[in-house]
Amino acid sequence: MRNNFRIRLWFLMQIKKENPEADFKExxxxxxxxxxxxxxxxxxxxxxxVTAKExxxxxxxxxxxxxKKEKDPWxxxxxxxxxxxxxxxxxxxxAAENKTVTEIAKIxxxxxxxxxxxxxxxxxxxxxxxxxxxxxxxxxxxxxxxxEASNLKKEKHEVLQLLKKKEKTENIVKLIIDRVL
Length: 181
Known about the structure:
Helix content is about 80%, strand content about 0%.
């Protein structure tokens, strides 16, 4: 209703601009009002079509947005790279110097690039060990998921069997009742 009032008000203002002498009081005859009201209805329909189209476009955009896939809390996390392990070691010292995150990233990146291979070796070794551990955890995780899936299939099968037995017993009871009656 509020939109109709706004449309009508806007329309009356447009007519007033076109015809400053127009009188919109109630003493105007229906014949004098008719052309304006017809024009108002046409303008109103056009406005409502435009707003309906805009609303449908907005709803379509909302539907098209992909929802984020929920992460499995039991799934093992990927191991950190050697560089990130190095950065974690350097982080407390650099943070104590009140460096920003950007500055810390630049400093550690430059230090890592200038490091000798022998200095990088402990971090790369930790990364290799973490990756092996991750692979083992992922295998266990996959086995757990497969087991859950097979258990779910078994449960579904059992439920279906129970439903079939229930239907059979109900049918037998109906047959017995039909024979008795």
